Amino acid sequence: MLARALARHLRAGDVVALVGPLGAGKTCFASGLAEALGVEGRVASPSFVVARFHDGPTPLVHADAYRLSGAEDLLDAGLDDWLRVAVVAVEWADLAEEALPADRLTVALATDGGGRRIELTATGPRSLRALEALEHDSSGHRDLEPTS
Amino acid sequence: MAGQWSLSADARVLGIESSCDETAAAVVQADGRVCSNVVASQNEFHEHFGGVVPEIASRRHTEVITAVVANALANAEVQPADISLIAVTRGPGLIGSLVVGVAAAKAYALAWGLPMVGVNHVEAHLAAALLHAPSQPAPAAEIFPTLCLIVSGGHTDLLLRSGPGQSELLGCTRDDAAGEALDKAARLLGLGFPGGPALERAAERGSREAIVFPRPQLPPHEFSFAGLKSALAREVKERGVLGEDEVADLAAGFQEAVVQTLWNALERAAAEHRPQQIVVAGGVAANRRLREVLAQGCGGLGLRLAVPPPVFCTDNAAMVALAGAQAFESCGPDSMDFDVFSALP
């Protein structure tokens, strides 16, 4: 739900940094983004393929730093090209932080008893705009998303 | 059947693969005989390049691809003039990596005046079941319909093939691929890298029944391994410091859950679609426990099973060359302006 609501406010060049332990729901969140953006192709964990490009009205690059040896690998994989044309969602973003723009929306996921806790942090004007737009139309629901 | 685009059995195809980590080239005959098979992350090739491991970076693919192709020709003891067709992986994979292989293939095709075909990486894994070393007999030809499972770090795809190049996707994973689940389990258990083989070794010392992990219940033909991974993460967290036997039991229990989940999906699909044969390919098809369960299961159902030798299970260009030969024989060459693709439809 939260991912879908957020997707409405994302534009090409926006970076969504997904962080959280194994099994926290990073791929699930990216899947929600993809669905709401209406992009093509099946969403699955990109850990092994590093990134998948999903074309659409606003394309989505679903990337993953899990297997990379650092920030440089993400740049080599084509991060700058992706940012020009697509929303870029990066799983395990904390493993390649230095490669990512400082202005990004960090989505920290954690499993918390029976639910799932999601914390959103904006670190620049671009990401703040998306976060504020999300707050404007979904205030009250942004902190806790039940697992479905 | 000799069509418009038939290749003779000994026609040589140069295959090029750069969809993910490996930069690979191979020379394969149209009948599946492998003349050479070079993968740039293999040890022999490392030494040649001072230990450089080609990873995902397209820059690194670029650095090694011409040398890899030259090695493939040299190992096969052929010249460019001996090649009849060039085949290259055009997707799915990492765009920046795919374009390196495709650009190289186009350049060679233009320079040597050869036809070229783009190959789907998943189709190529299936073709691997028909590859054989010069010293080995050719495997029996595929009989259709064939039920196919591609299991690797990036794929868990169940397909039904009604003929060469005619595949229908029955289902795939909603989250993690089977090989990815095994790799991440190895990391949770502190078993080192590469995770799949490390988990398999640990599992051989453990009991498959000591710790039973849940088998996800999903609509037919769909897979999900994220829940299984979370279950292992919870076990590891609850148990605290793990003894060696505990690690072995967890590894064995986890591997068994993955293997049985894969077999159950095949068994259900076989009951529904009545295939003549089951083909299982991709890196996880090298797993000995999976091969054992597949052999038992297919034996029980009276179904023919084809699993490529382990060397052709992981990403390689020999499978690309053979899939290219098959695609060429059914549809002819691709035009020079074809593009790469990243995700499966």
Task: Outline the structure in words.
By secondary structure, chain A is an alpha/beta fold. Chain A has one domain: 3-Layer(aba) Sandwich (Rossmann fold). Chain A contains five helices and seven strands. Chain A has helices spanning 2-7, 26-37, 71-77, 79-85, 125-138; strands at 15-19, 51-54, 60-64, 87-91, 105-112, 115-122, 144-145. A seven-stranded mixed β-sheet of chain A has the order 2-3-4-1-5-6-7, with helices on both faces. In chain A, a hairpin with a 5-residue loop joins strand 2 (51-54) and strand 3 (60-64). The model of chain A is unreliable at 144-148 (pLDDT under 50). With 345 residues, chain B is of the alpha/beta class. Chain B folds into two domains: 12-138 and 313-331, ATPase, nucleotide binding domain (Nucleotidyltransferase, domain 5, 2-Layer Sandwich); 146-307, Nucleotidyltransferase, domain 5. Chain B is built from ten helices and ten strands. Chain B has helices spanning 43-48, 58-76, 95-112, 121-127, 178-188, 195-204, 226-239, 244-273, 288-301, 318-331, and strands at 12-17, 24-29, 34-39, 83-91, 116-120, 146-151, 156-163, 166-171, 277-281, 304-306. In chain B, helix 2 packs across helix 3. The radius of gyration of chain B is 20 Å and the shape is globular.
Total strand segments of chain B: 10
How many discrete structural domains of chain B?
2
Estimated share of beta-strand residues of chain B:
15-25%
Largest pleated sheet of chain A: 7 strands, mixed
Name the quaternary structure: heterodimer
What is the CATH first-level class name of chain A?
Answer: Alpha Beta
Discrete helix count of chain A: 5
Uncertain segments of chain B are 43-47, 49-55
Helix content of chain A: 25-40%
Q: Report strand order across the widest sheet of chain A.
A: 2-3-4-1-5-6-7
Q: What is the 3D form of chain A? A: globular
Instruction: Please tell me the total number of domains of chain A.
Output: 1
Reported by name, the CATH topology of chain A is: Rossmann fold
Helix content of chain B: 40-55%
